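Subject: Sanity check before I submit

Could someone independently write out the C-alpha cells for this chain? I want to compare against mine line by line before I put it in a report. The sequence has 405 residues.
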Amino acid sequence: MSLNQTPRGDRVHISLFGRRNAGKSSLINALTGQQIALVSEVPGTTTDPVYKAMEILPIGPVVIIDTAGLDDVGGLGELRIQKTIEVLNKTDVAIVVIDGSCSDYSFEKDLLQRIEAKKLPVIIVLNKIDQLDQKDLNIAVLQKELGHNVVAVSAVENTGIAEIKQALIKKLPEEEGKTFLVRDLINPGDLVILVTPIDSAAPKGRVILPQQQVLRDILDGGAIGIVTREIEFAAALASLGKKPKLVITDSQAFEKVSAETPDDIMLTSFSILFARHKGDLAELVKGARTVDTLQDGDKILVAEGCTHHRQCDDIGTVKIPRWLRQYTGKQLVFEHSAGFSYPSNLEDYKLVVHCGACMLNRREMQHRILTAKGKTIPIVNYGVLIAHIQGILPRVLQPFSAEVL
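---
Independent answer below. Compare away.
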C-alpha cells in the first residue's frame, strides 16, 4: 500500500482554525502546493469542514481539514461554528491562523483555551505579512501575548511555508504508547490465519478495510498471513504443517471459528484488535458486561463512524438488534447514528454499541469513548459485544489479558 492509499483513519489530522477571511484556505493551498481549497475575499467562503487526504513532504500522509470561521454570525453561522468545534475531537495538530492586520487577539486567546483544554499541539500562524510594513511586524510581542511561538507567513507569496512544515514535524504526535494492530502479539515467522467471510456487505473484488490493515501489520512484522473464508477454515487449519500462533476472525463468524479452533491456539477478532488499537479495550469490555443488566424498554444507540449503503442483513441495523434481543430476552429499543458525532440526547441511552472505527482516527474514537464514559453510559464495540453474547469473550481476550484485568 502506497502512502497515497493510507486510510483516513491512519493519517495525521491537521486542522486549521481562525476567524473568517484569515486566510486558512489560502494557507492550505500553499502547504499542499495545490489549489484544493476555494479562496475568496468574501468572509465565510468555507461553510462546512472540508477534508483533503494527501501527502505533505516530508511529513507523509495527512488529512488537512479546512474549517469555517469561528466568528461566523447568525443562526446558520452558529451551526457552522458548532461543526468547526466538533473538528477538534479528531484533530492531531491544530493550526491557528491570524490575519496579519489584526490588532486585538482576545478572540484567538479564547480559541487557544479551547485547544489547550483538549491537550492538542498547536501552531500559530500570522498570515498576510505581505500586506504589513516590516516596522509593524513584531513577532516577539505577539508571542509573549499569546504564550506560543508564532510563524509569520504569506500564503499568497508562499513565504514561511517551509517553517510551518518544520513546526508540524516537531508537533506531530509521538508514536510511543500507541499499539500495533497485531504485530506486538506475534513473532517473525509465526503463522496467522485470517478468517474473512465474503458476504453481501463485502465490497466487490476486495476485502474490507480492517482485514487489509491487519494483514499489512502481520506482513510488516515478518509473520506469515494466511487468508481463508470461514467455510474453508477447518480445511485450511488441517492442511498446515505448523500450528498457527493466532487466528483472527470476523466477529460474525465467531461461533463457527471458535468451535473449530483448538484451545491451545490464540483466537481474537478484527474488531477486538481495533478496539485495542484505537479505543480503550478495558472500557469496552466493561460495556459488554452491562448487557446482562438491560431491561425492557431500555434504549440502545448503535453508532457508526461512517455512512455506507445498508445491506438487507446489515450488522448495525439488523443483526446487532436481533442478537441483543435474543440474548437478553428483553424488548429493547434501538436507534442508530452514523457520521462524525453522537446525537445530542446521548444521556437517554442505556448502552452505546459502536462499530469497529476503521474510518476514525484514534483521537476521535478516544473522544467518543470518553464522552459516553463522562455521561456514565456504557459503551462497547461490535466485536466485543458479539464475543460476550456468544459466551467466548474470556477466550478471545486471552492475548490481551494483562490489559483488561
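---
OP: Matches mine. For the report I'm noting this point. The CA atoms of residues 197 and 360 lie 23 Å apart.
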